[in-house]
Amino acid sequence: MKLSSLVLAALISSIGLSAHAEGRLDKIKSTKTISLGHRDSSIPFSYLDGGKPVGYSKEICDGIVKALEKQLGTELTVKQVPVTSASRIPLIMNGTIDLACGSATNNAERQKQVSFAPTTFVTATRFVSAKADNIKDVAGFKGQTVTSTAGTSNIKWLAATNAKENLGMNIIPSKDHAGAFLTVQAGRAKAFFMDDVLLASLVANSEDPEKWVVSDKALTTEPYAIIQPKNDPEFKKAVDDAVIAMIKSGEIERLYKKWFESPIPPKNINMNLPMSEALKKALANPTDSPDPATYQ
User: Fold this and answer.
1) pLDDT in tens, 209-232
2) Among 272, 267, 285, CA closest to 223
3) 56: which residues sit within 8 A by CB, 6+ positions away?
4) Cα dihedral sign, 123-60-291-283
5) Of the residues 221, 248, 267, which one is the last residue of a structural domain?
6) Nearest to 273 by CA among 208, 181, 203, 225
7) Residue 21 — very low, low, confident or very high, per pLDDT cuts 50/70/90?
8) Do 75 and 149 belong to one domain?
9) Which contiguous run of DSSP H or E holds residue 266?
10) Are residues 192 and 157 in the same domain?
11) Quick one: a GO biological-process term for this protein (predicted)?
C-alpha cells in the first residue's frame, strides 16, 4: 500500500525532528564524521572531476569543516554523499547529510523545511535554446516542449508561469542539469530553464557553444547558499559563523576568482564571469534572507 504524500511528509518531518533532537554538532563530535551532499553536474558549484567532487560550493563546505574541527577540537572524517535537486532537502531532514554543498536557491518555501547559510552567490532564471530559433521570452515557447531539472525552484516557476499565462507548454522534468541540456541538444525539448550561471557553464563545455544562446531577460532572482538543518540553532551558528569568517577574510572572493574567473576542470574553460553587484551587496552585509528584493 502506498503512503499518502501527507503521511510521507509527516514521516520525513518526524525523522528530521529525531535527528535534530540529537543535535548535529553532538552527532558530528561523537562520530567524528560529517556528511556532505554533493552534485555531479552543477558546474562550477559542485560536480565530479575524475570521480571526485570539486567546485565553489564544495570548497566553501571544506572551509566550514575546518572551522567545525577547530570548534570541536577534533579532526573529522568527511563522508561525500551524492545528491540530486530532488533528494538534497529530504536527506538533510532525515539526517543522512549535514550540509548540502551545491547550487541551491534559498527561498521562503524551502525555509519551511531547512535553513540556509549566508548567501554566497546570486543568479537568475533564464533559458538556453538554439540560437537559430531566435526566441527571446518564455511566451515564444507556447504549445512547445521545454525542460527543467526536477526538484528545483526553476521548474516550479516554469509550471506556475505555464498555468498563469495559459501557454500550453509540455514541461519535461529532467533528473539533472546535464540531462536537461542533453534533452535540448537532442531536439526533444526547445529550451532548458535554469539558473543562468549553470546554463552558461553547460554551453561553455558543450561541443558547439556557438549553436546555443542564454536568454537576456532575468525571469527570477535566485540567492544561493549552503543548505543546513532547520531548528538547530547551535549548528546554524557554527556554520554561519564559519561562512561569515570566510567572507570577511576574503576567502570567498578568492574562491570566486578561482571558479568563475579562471580556467577550471575538466576542460580548463574560463567562464570569465565577474562578480555581480547583487553578490557584492550580499557579501558586504552577509544575510540568509530568501527575499529577492534584498539582493536588488
Assistant:
1) 999 999 998 899 999 999 999 999
2) 285
3) 44, 45, 46, 120, 121, 255, 256, 258, 259, 260
4) negative
5) 221
6) 203
7) low
8) no
9) none
10) yes
11) amino acid transport
How far apart are the C-alpha atoms of 128 and 108, rounded to whole Å? Answer: 26
Cα distance between residue 112 and residue 222, in whole Å: 17
Give, for 117, the enclosing helix (H) or strand (E). none
At 27, list the grid cell: 552527532
- Give the DSSP letter of residue 106: -
Expressed as residue numbers, the domain containing 131 is 124-221
CATH code of residue 34: 3.40.190.10
CA distance 195 to 220: 9
Q: Which three cell numbers stand for residue 80?
A: 561525500
Cβ(88)–Cβ(42) under 8 Å? no
Short-list 96, 157, 104, 112, CA closest to 9 = 112
The set of cell numbers assigned to 192 is 532548458
Q: Are 128 and 115 contained in the same domain?
A: no
Q: How many CB atoms lie within 10 A of CB 262?
A: 13
Give exposure, 114-140, as e/b (b: 16+ Cβ within 10 Å): bbbbbbbbbbbbbbbbeeeeebeebeb
d(C-alpha 284, C-alpha 3), whole Å: 46
Residue pLDDT, tens place only, 244-280: 999 999 999 999 999 999 999 998 989 888 899 999 9
* Cell matching residue 257: 576568482
Radius of gyration of the chain (CA): 19
Structural domain ending residue among the three candidates 194, 221, 248: 221
Locate 283 and state its grid cell: 557579501
pLDDT digits (tens, 9 = 90+) for 140-158: 999 999 999 999 999 999 9
238 in the same domain as 101: yes
Whole-angstrom CA distances from 22 to 26, 151, 190, 225, 289 are 7, 28, 48, 24, 27
